[in-house]
Amino acid sequence: MSGIENSSGQAGEGRVKNAILIAGPTASGKSALALDLAERNGGVIVNADSMQGYSVLDVLTARPGPAELARVPHFLYGHVDPSTAYSTGAWLRDVMKLIDDGTLSGRLGGTFSEGPAIFVGGTGLYFRALAEGISEMPDIPKSIRERWRYELQEQGAVRLHRILLREDSAAGMMLKPTDSQRIVRALEVLDASGRSILDWQAARGRPLIDRSSARFFVIEPERAALVERIDARFDRMLDKGALDEVKQLSALGLDPDLPAMKAIGVRELQAALAGATSFPEAIERAKIATRQYAKRQATWFRHQLGPEWQSLRPGEGIDSTISPPPSSAT
């Protein structure tokens, strides 16, 4: 990874200086906060939400619309085909590309401003990887990936678990026989690299941000207010064409186990389109699933984020959030 410079010209040793990280559950208002900060301080916004990286689902994943995209530069939104199983490691590599080409440091002949890089989203593992580093994983050739998916369909997770126990007993003993996705992942890594996935996981990478100058924020809305926001937002999604997006996605004939196919609202609306349920029932199920997801996100943030993360209520502390921490003052 190449070194970069921050706006003061100091070497960043390959890491982003003065980054702002904004986490929060879905519909908590984090994108609006990021947009306000970026616009007022000449910054750029980088997506840190796994579902908003997929194309097709513009509305259903609540990605920033054309008006928001026109106000400040946005990156890593809608750039992944839904047929791809996008991972935390893949996202981190995409962030590294933005660093290496100068996008996050204003080195592109003034094309982008030299304000802060603002990472915003609801995927906790993305933030952890960004701030703490992540284990490098080998690239998995398409032929190997397809082979083990086929074997999963033909043999089932329990039989593949037996294979994993035989070929990589340490990894196999750490997984339940029914944990199909992790079993397949372990077999893919072993097949592609000849090394256990545990060996790869033991080698931690390096953070991509300079923690000493970074600011960390997590939005914690009141539960009742968040439920209202979730329900109202899903209704707006339907008005803006969410159902058409589900039709478009369904027409691709993708594996239902792919991450994009598990976006909240996809399965519910597919069931209604197939006549398996009514549209009102599908809408209510999608809203319930979104509320449950938001609760899981909030719980994860509460227990997994470190003490450097400052809690905010929606709309709180906006004017003070961009000041560098005292330890980074020069």
Please render the helix and strand layout as text:
Elements: E1 20-23, H1 30-41, E2 44-47, H2 66-71, E3 74-75, H3 88-100, E4 117-121, H4 124-132, H5 142-155, H6 157-167, H7 169-173, H8 180-193, H9 197-202, E5 215-219, H10 223-239, H11 242-250, H12 266-273, H13 279-304, E6 309-312
Parallel strand pairs: 1-4, 1-5, 2-3, 2-4, 5-6
Helix pairs in contact: 3-4, 5-6, 5-8, 6-8, 10-13, 11-12, 12-13
Description:
This protein is 45% helix and 7% strand. With 330 residues, it is of the alpha/beta class. The chain has three domains: 20-134 and 204-222 and 297-328, 3-Layer(aba) Sandwich (Rossmann fold), CATH 3.40.50; 142-202, Histone, subunit A (Orthogonal Bundle); 225-295, Crystal structure of tRNA isopentenylpyrophosphate transferase (bh2366) domain (Helix Hairpins). A six-stranded parallel sheet has the order 3-2-4-1-5-6, with helices on one face.
Radius of gyration: 21 Å
- Classify the oligomer: single chain
SS-based class: alpha/beta
Q: Give me the strand/helix succession.
A: EHEHEHEHHHHHHEHHHHE
Total strands: the figure is: 6
Helicity level:
40-55%
CATH topology of the largest domain: Rossmann fold
Q: How many structural domains?
A: 3
Cα distance spanning the termini:
26 Å
Report the total helices: 13
- State the shape: globular
CATH class term of the largest domain = Alpha Beta
Largest sheet: 6 strands, parallel
**How would you write the strand order of the largest sheet?**
3-2-4-1-5-6
